[in-house]
Specification:
6-stranded antiparallel sheet, globular, 10 strands, mainly beta
Length: 116
């Protein structure tokens, strides 16, 4: 399984409050229905933290599974596999945003502009 931690490369202006339903560390991905955010600071269960819902993040992606993708390709968060994929999986995977650079099948991460 890929490391689900996301490194925020460029922080966006939109950060929202989030009450942790489980223990979280900075860089964890949280999905709330169709809203995908990246945790800004660690939080214990019930603790308040922030979610980055815009900006550019370095998301893990599976190697070999995805085809080469150009900049501007839509990527989705796969909750089960904890990585970014090009497949919406009929709505199971949630839209993160668009890649900001090309990626290849051998890349382990993709830079994504979070925009839902």
């Amino acid at each position: 399984m890929a490391d689900p931690t996301v490194e925020m490369i460029q922080l966006g202006p939109i950060v929202i409050d989030h009450t942790a339903a489980s223990a979280l560390v900075e860089g964890d991905v949280v999905v709330q229905t169709d809203l995908v955010g990246v945790v800004g600071a660690a939080a214990a269960i019930g603790g308040l933290t922030s979610l980055h819902v815009s900006g550019v993040g370095r998301f893990p992606k599976p190697t070999g599974a995805n085809t080469d993708a150009a900049a501007g390709t839509l990527f989705y968060w796969d909750v089960a596999d904890t990585n970014a994929q090009e497949d919406a999986d009929t709505g199971t995977n949630k839209l993160i945003g668009k890649s900001v650079q090309a990626v290849t099948t051998t890349d382990t991460h993709v830079l994504i502009y979070i925009s839902q």
